[in-house]
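Posted in: Structural Biology > Protein-Ligand Complexes

Title: Requesting predicted complex, phosphoenolpyruvate in pocket

I'd be grateful if someone could produce the 3D structure tokens for the following input. Sequence and ligand are given below.
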Amino acid sequence: MLIILKSEATQQQIDHLIERIEGLGLKAHLSQGTYRTVVGIIGDESQLAGTPLEAIPGVAQVIPVLPAYKLASLEAHPQPSVVNVGGVKIGGGHVGMIAGPCAVESYERMDAIAGAVRQAGANLLRGGAFKPRTSPYAFQGLEEEGLKILREVGDKHGLPVVTEVMDPRRVDLVHEYTDMFQIGARNMQNFVLLTAVGETRKPVLLKRGMSATVKDLLMSAEYILARGNPNVVLCERGVKSFDTDTRNLFDVAAVPLAHTLSHLPIFVDPSHATGRPDLVPACALAGLAAGADGVHIEVHDCPEKALSDGSQALLPSQYAELASQLRELAKLLGKQLSPAPQPARAKSGT
Ligand code: PEP
Ligand code: MN
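-- Reply #1 --
Done. Output follows.
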């Protein structure tokens, strides 16, 4: 970290600053130019967390040299991380394909959608049992019953499952049923929840908040990593914008940007990013072309009857067509779609 002092900083202020730095067990390297004095800090900068250096008299500017998201940074881990979700690899050339309805609605519906998306090439099944709805009067999810259905259907079709956890008090319950936690956009900065999933070792799909920067997303990932859970996958799902023709603004640049800053894999979710099934295929392909490690897409066999997000869901046939294009593109990019595990029935030999 570099601290640039004001041109009028007095010797007394410089001495005070150095005393504060050394008092925290760090070394200060003083460099006095003709017009400006710069102090370089050497040592474990985490000692400085919570010290408002800018507020020390005489300080003009503080320039961090290392990012605050230490564990999520590329410096900490120069190779791309590979996260294993129930046997499906994500990252480092392995592409994840999460598909399924927005919400778990019934066993029959989940079973039909899972069969279709598995056949199309999906390797992970999604479905919300706890839904973060904007309106308190909208369908809130089947809760534990939904988790049971998702688990059962996932096992039947050989698809590890992903589902949202919204409340730190439900982390243990969701942990019992899921292969991957989803932290939704609205909870990206729910630090108590991030800490709670960080205390498990279960993979976490961390969605970008709708008004969060990519660096904010990495700071949230840091909360999970700092508790000892290394299995974090980021997800770009669109940010708020002024254009009302799409649900959000799909920030495709977030994908290569995240890869320049972090070793963590990143998914794209063109369903929530655009809110329109006619725009989903182009944005899914663009995301993969931009370097995404996976694609997260909502699929429903009867969107007009869906209990949530029906207006953005692809039909299974549309998903199948897109999945085959994604497979071709992955091949061109030298990547491969991770194979889904064997269905439970085949595994037990019955
Ligand atoms: C979802 O995946 O259904 C969802 C609610 O996503 P987001 O948190 O990105 O809005
Ligand atoms: Mn949804």
